[in-house]
Amino acid sequence: MNENEIKVGDVYVLDSENGKQYEVVVVNVNHFREPNMQYACDVYLDGWHVWDGCVFVGETFFKRKNVRRKD
User: What is the mean pLDDT of each run of 10 residues along the chain (71 residues)?
Assistant: First the structure.
C-alpha cells in the first residue's frame, strides 16, 4: 500500500482562512463515485461535528496547501 494513499480512518487538518483548524476524518472511500466525491468525511471543530452528515470530496482536496495529514 502506498503511504500517501487516502484510506478510512485517516485524519487531516484544514487550516481555514477564518483562522480555525478543522479536523477532517475519512469515513468511507468509494472509487466508483465520481472523482470529486470519492471520499466521505466527517468534519469536526473543537471535537464537535460541523455538519450532521458527511462531506464528499475528491483527492484534490487533500492536495491543497492548507490541508495536511494529522500526526
Answer: 86 97 98 96 96 94 96 81
